[in-house]
Each structure stands twice: as structure tokens, then as C-alpha cells.
## 1
Amino acid sequence: MADDGWSRAFMAASGVPMAGDRQDDALRALVNEARAEGLDRSRMAVLAAHREVEVREAVASRRDCPVALQATLAHDRRGSVRVALASCAGIAIGVAGELARDKDASVLKALARNSATPRQVLEALALHRRPDVARLARRALDGGSPAAGAVEQTATRPAFVRPSAHAEQSSPVGERRARALAPRPEVGRSGPRPAR
């Protein structure tokens, strides 16, 4: 086989590790080490300064990340590291306040969506000039996220809704009435064919 480019691309797209991916294996091992429980602080500090973004993201997303490392990662040049830190459940109050002054909208949105974000930071975000950030912060201050509202609605809905007697006859979609459905399209031509 002279050309196996398509098969290598297929293997890479499927996520199956290939023989030439030793660097990827080493990176995966470092990311898994950064996510592992029981990681000591000195090793965590080394991994927080690693050149690979994925390793720094894994350290930033740890709940037990020390405040000094959080403060360092809050000034990381990559936005994805700051997003991981902003969505961390163990974020410190001062670090959250620092991230609230970030220019990246994805960092601000992650901070507004985080349930561990302090109230004073959310109040500052609710007054932000970007309307999407302010809306998310106001929603968090009101005590509801879209997911929590959906859970409450499904909890109040009865488990079984009995369809009416004529529902099956009038509509194939259950409770919807026939007049709410679009008219059925006609297939085929009703007139003569045009000349060629």
C-alpha cells in the first residue's frame, strides 16, 4: 500500500490512537496526571506552568487548585485556560473578581454560569456593557439557570397525560388538532408536461 493517507485520516478522526502519536500519548498522560486526585501541590505548580494548554486547563479546572496557582492562571495568555478557571467549582473570591475584569466574553460567561461565583462578582457582571454577559449574571442572581428551570418544569408536570378520545383520529401527533397541521402536499403534476 503506497498511499494510506485516507486510512490515517479516518483513524485520527475516530479517536483511535495511532503508532506515530507518541507525543499525543505523552500529552494525554500529563492531562490525566493533572486531573488525578491526590496530586501534590509542587507537582500541580509544575503542571500549571506547562507549555501545553490542555495541561494548564486541567490544572485550572481542579476544585483543589491553590489560590496562588489560580491567581497565576487568571493571567494566562490563552482564553481557554481562563475559561476553565472561571468555571471551576473551587474558585477564590479574589480570583473571580480579577476574572470579572477580563476582556474575553467567554471567560465572563463562564464566570456568570458558575454556581460558585460570589454574589458581589455576579452583581458587577449584571451591570456589564455586554448584554449577553449581563443577562447571564442577572439570571444567576435571580437564582435560576436554564437547566434548573427545565428540571422544575418537568418535576411539576404529571407523569402521564391521558390523550383525549378524538386525538388519535384527528391528528397523527397526539393532542394537536388537525387544523394546526399544515396541509398535505400533493405529489406529482396535475397538468400536462411542458414540451421539450
## 2
Amino acid sequence: NSPLRSEVVNGADILFVRELLGGLYFGEPRSWDKEAGSAWNTMRYTRDEITRVARVAFELATSRRNKVTSVDKANVLEVSQLWRATVTEVAAQYPDVILEHHYVDACAMHLMNTPRNFDVVLTENLFGDILSDEAAVITGSLGMLPSATIGGQVNLYEPVHGSAPDIAGKGIANPLGAILTAAMLLRHSAKLEQDAQAIETSVRKVLEQGYRTADLARGETKMTVSTQEMGRMVHQSLNEMIDRRQAMHAV
């Protein structure tokens, strides 16, 4: 139930690859001098940090639609100039993947106007934080979005939304972000693509039947269901799919 027109969002499938260890959030020095009334942060990246995350984006693109959109602010930021140059170098190793560069402000506009033009969006920490939340408009709710922190020996999976303690126990939270996060875990860590697709298809079928949690309900929607009911419906849809698959194998 996106507030955007259906002809704009139908078929949109965007994967954000956001660098999580560098940039303004962790750069040093940083300080707030209350007496002087001034504060400062440092946006810093190394070539190796950018190369690492860029390779992740390009590898993922090879199993999708072979397109990477790198987002920066290279017209004014030196760190973005390094970002753009490094991503371009990495792109040379993936000749089958299309690379395009967007300034972050232009990307924010194009995400709303033409979301179907995007495949894998690669960007640094701050820009990725903002753009990925903006993209929730495409699905209709932040509660729909799964995410994963991938790198090193252990991957961390969690929905994009926070814990929302203000609605705890009310039965109005959207469980689909968490359910779709489980699908990401199966795909990227367990390498169980068929099972990941089964979960995603089950979620899609329930939504196509018109069921919505409160955050997705629009206008005169009469099929608003609770957190628990939505979870049970997806579970039932998944079980039916598994039963059909097993029946086909038994024939």
C-alpha cells in the first residue's frame, strides 16, 4: 500500500548496500564544544574500506539485474571523490555489470519518481541510512523492510525498523519485515535460495489477498489484521506451498 502511484512502484526491487563501519558516524576527531558553541564530525574513508563494500555490491548485482548505482556527493566532498574513483576501479572487474553514479540529492528524487530503474544501490554510511529509510515509502511502511549486516565471520540479520516499545503488546506491529529478514538469512548465510523465495512468495500472496497490518491500512481497508494474524497467514501460505512441493515430488 504505497502512497506512490501503482504504475510507479509496481515491479520495483531495490537492494541497498550501505557501508557501516566508516563515514561521519565513526570518523575521528569529533566533539561538541558547548562553551564555544561549536561542534564537528569527520567524514573519513579509506580506499580499502570502499573497495570491500563495492565488491559486495557488484557480486550481489551479478545474481540480480546486473546494475549498480553508486551514490555520493562527489561535486563537493573529497571523500566522495575517493568513493567514486574507487567504485569505478572495482567496476572494471565486473564488465557485465552496469555502473551509474548519482549524487545523493538526485538519487533521493529518482527513488520516488522512478524506483524501477534501480537494482543495487551502493553508498556510504550516512547517505545509506537516509536513502534506505526513504525507500520505505515504496513499500508503504518501514515495517516491511528486511536488512542484514554482512561481513567477517558472522552476519547479523534484523528488520530495518526499531523495537517500537510504544506499540508493544497492542497487536498492531508489522511482522513482515522480520519474516522477510528470515528469508535474507536463508539466502545469504544458509545459501537456501529456494526456501528464501518460498517465504517471500508467501508474504506476497497474503498481501495480494488484501490483508494489511495497521501501518499499511489505507482508506476503507476492511481486511486489517493483527500482528499475530498476519504471522499465522504467512505461515499457512508457506505450509501450503511446502505441501504442494512435497506432493509434486511424490508423484
